[in-house]
Structure formats: C-alpha cells, structure tokens
C-alpha cells in the first residue's frame, strides 16, 4: 500500500492502473476511521481493481464554532486499518496541496436539497462538501465512488452534482454500519462520555419504534412529535426530526416509502441518523 501526499504523486501512482484500464474505486474520508469506513473499502474492493482512500479534514465544510481544529487526525492508525482491508493507495494531502496559496474564487452549490435538514443547521457546509468532493473526483478520476448512507443528505448532494456536472463515475451508497446497540458508527462518537455513549443508541431505538408506529397506523405528525419528545426526555437537544421522500422532497402525510431523519446534540456532540422505511403494498 502506498501513501501519497501530493496530487502529482497520486497521479503517478495511478498511471499504471489507467494504462491497464483497471477499474479504480475511491473512498473519500476525513480520517479517524472506523468500521463504517472500512465497510466502504470492502465494498470498493469487490468491484474495483485499485482502491484509493483519501484522508483529508476539509476546512471549508466546517462552520464557525465547529470542530475543525479538534477533529481527530490519526493517519498512522488509519493506515494500519486500511492496509488490513486491502486499500491500495492512501491520498493524504495538506490543505495547501488541495487549495493552494491563492484565494479560491470558485464555489459549487447544489440548491433545493440543501435548503433544510443539515443544510439549515450548518450553512455553507454542503458547499464545502461539494467543492472538495469535486476536486477529489477530478484528482483521482475514479470509475466508482463509495459513500455511507448515514450522511443521506450528503449522498444525495453528491449524486446530484455528479449528474449535473457530467462527472464520469458511478456513486455507490453503502448501508449504515451500526454498533451492536444500534448506534450509527461515526468518528464523532469518540467525543461522547461513557454516560452519553450509553444514551446515544436512543436515536436508533426511536427510529425503529417510529417504523412500528407507522405500520400500526399512527399519523406521521404524531410519530415525529413522539421522537422529539422522547429525545428531549433522554437528554438530547433536538436539531430536527423530519420525514422526507427518498429524493428528499417534503411529505406531510404518511407515505409508504419514506426516510426519517434525526439530528440532535448530546452534550457538545452532534449526532445524525436516518431510517429508510418501505412498507410493501
């Protein structure tokens, strides 16, 4: 496994694969890797000849007061984990390598589907994601890119920009990886105290209870209100509890194919989760 820190070095490392017309898979990450990330790499290995994993904490997707400076940088540990699952190349550029010394005058915004949910709570976040992902796609030029469905809205944003900008790759969403108690794996889970970690699985428990309630005929508005009430009772500060169509369009009444979304803070840690629900007719 190679580790490249420059665009030039990565291009050189990928040249033999391109010449041989091998399939290149790409998993973009911010590092501090966990089983969720490794699942993405395994998915990439199944269909690609060469797998590139980027490790880059992207400053322009963090807002004021967010955790850019404190976000864990664990490259040595990440490298060992990636070697174990068969990653071929790590791309770990500096901020200067990604953005240069000159001011960035170009922005990329995906409208409508970024207006609410995390887009409302974190203004500018998805613009930062869109810019860095587009840059990484241009640098790596993969055939396939793999993203986790925990960040469902982010996945939708990336699918949209790939479609709108005719980026020649296929985006593959990989199901959420959970701990044994149901908590969606996230690098930010490491911020939780022992007590908070024991409370955090309440999010998934309430999503599953909501699925049962909807199946039993409870109204969507009542189900969403119950989730919010129970999260608050458990000690969370609720950001949003929402239901959307799979394409992120709003819905008012229960639909047989929907996604429930939660974002809530436990102490200073912001957690997100979602559950896709499809009741067969």
What's the gyration radius in Å?
Answer: 19 Å
> What share of the residues lie within helices?
25-40%
Question: Helices and strands, in N-to-C order?
Answer: EHEHEHEHHHEHEHHHEEE
Which regions have little confidence, pLDDT < 50, spanning 5+ residues? none
Write the layout of secondary structure elements.
Layout: E1 2-4, H1 7-19, E2 24-29, H2 35-47, E3 50-55, H3 75-84, E4 89-91, H4 95-99, H5 118-121, H6 125-140, E5 144-148, H7 152-164, E6 170-174, H8 194-199, H9 202-215, H10 220-234, E7 237-244, E8 257-266, E9 269-278
Parallel strand pairs: 1-4, 2-3, 2-5, 3-4, 5-6
Antiparallel strand pairs: 7-8, 8-9
What does the model show?
- It is found in: Cytoplasm.
- Belongs to the pantothenate synthetase family.
- Catalyzes the condensation of pantoate with beta-alanine in an ATP-dependent reaction via a pantoyl-adenylate intermediate.
- By secondary structure, this protein is an alpha/beta fold.
- Helix content is 39%, strand content 20%.
- Helix 6 packs across helix 7 and helix 9 (202-215) packs antiparallel against helix 10.
- The radius of gyration is 19 Å and the shape is globular.
- The model has no long low-confidence stretch (mean pLDDT 96).
């Amino acid at each position: 496994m190679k580790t490249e820190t420059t665009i030039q070095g990565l291009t050189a490392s990928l040249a033999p694969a391109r010449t041989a017309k091998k399939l290149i898979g790409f998993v973009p990450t911010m590092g501090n890797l966990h089983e969720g990330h490794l699942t993405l790499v395994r998915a990439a290995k199944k269909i690609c000849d060469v797998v590139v994993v980027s490790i880059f904490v992207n400053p322009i997707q963090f807002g004021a007061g967010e955790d850019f400076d404190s976000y864990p940088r664990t490259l040595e540990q990440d490298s060992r984990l990636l070697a174990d699952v068969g990653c071929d190349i790590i791309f770990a550029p500096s901020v200067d390598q990604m953005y240069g010394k000159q001011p960035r005058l170009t922005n990329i915004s995906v409208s409508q589907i970024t207006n609410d949910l995390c887009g409302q709570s974190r203004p500018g976040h998805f613009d930062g994601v869109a810019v860095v992902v587009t840059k990484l796609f241009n640098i790596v030029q993969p055939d396939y890119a793999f993203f986790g469905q925990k960040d469902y809205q982010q996945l939708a944003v990336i699918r949209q920009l790939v479609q709108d900008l005719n980026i020649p790759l296929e985006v593959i969403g990989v199901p959420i990886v959970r701990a044994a108690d149901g908590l969606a794996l996230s690098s930010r889970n490491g911020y939780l105290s022992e007590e908070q970690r024991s409370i955090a699985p309440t999010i998934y428990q309430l999503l599953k209870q909501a699925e049962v309630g909807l199946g039993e005929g409870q109204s969507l508005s009542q189900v969403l209100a119950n989730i919010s009430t129970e999260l608050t009772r458990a000690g969370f500060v609720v950001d949003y509890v929402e239901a959307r169509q799979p394409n992120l369009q709003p819905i008012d009444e229960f639909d047989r194919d929907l996604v429930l979304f939660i974002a809530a803070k436990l102490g200073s840690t912001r957690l997100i989760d979602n559950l896709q629900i499809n009741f067969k007719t």
